[in-house]
Amino acid sequence: MASVFSRIIARELPAYIVAEDDKHIAFLDINPNALGHTLCVPKKETDKLFDLDQEAYLNLMQFSHRVATALRQVVSCKRIGLSVIGLEVPHVHVHLIPLNEMADITFQKKTTVSKEAMETLAEKINAAFL
Questions:
Q1: Which one from 24, 37, 91, 93 is the annotated catalytic residue?
Q2: pLDDT at 125 over 90
Q3: Cα 45 to chain centroid, rounded
Q4: Any idea what the CATH number is for the domain that residue 95 is in?
């Protein structure tokens, strides 16, 4: 069965997409740690980060860097944190989390963002990505 991320990639499920290229997609996390929490995902479904071959791994990190750079232009924060955990969805994904305090990256603290704010944020990050 396809992962929830593969279903987003196939446009079977909605997402606030902020960036995309031929091998990757980035979208806002619907249960964010902080405003702008973004997931960068390879389009080829692979369960674990270190199961990616070296080229796919490096490409994902380069894509994540580009997304983080755009995110930093749009969301006011001290820095963009990066985390790869991957226990909740069996599809490699990089968490990019705007950080103002350590609790922002603990996955214990969540924030609520309205649909309208998510749409506007996704548009702004996408414009900065291009």
A1: 93
A2: yes
A3: 15
A4: 3.30.428.10
Please say if 93 is a catalytic residue. Answer: yes
Number of Cβ atoms within 10 Å of the Cβ of 77:
18
pLDDT digits (tens, 9 = 90+) for 33-60: 999 999 999 999 999 999 999 999 999 9
Domain containing residue 93? 4-129
What whole-number distance in Å separates Cα of residue 18 and Cα of residue 72?
Answer: 13
Contact indicator for 35, 121 with CB cutoff of 8 Å: yes
pTM greater than 0.70: yes
Cα gap 60→114, rounded to integer Å: 29
Q: Whose structure tokens read 């603290």?
A: 109
State how many domains the chain has. Answer: 1
Residues of 101-130 as b/e, b for ≥16 C-beta within 10 angstroms?
eeebbeeeeeeebeeeebeebbebbbebbe
User: Left if phi > 0, otherwise alpha if psi is -120 to 50, otherwise beta: which for 17?
Assistant: beta
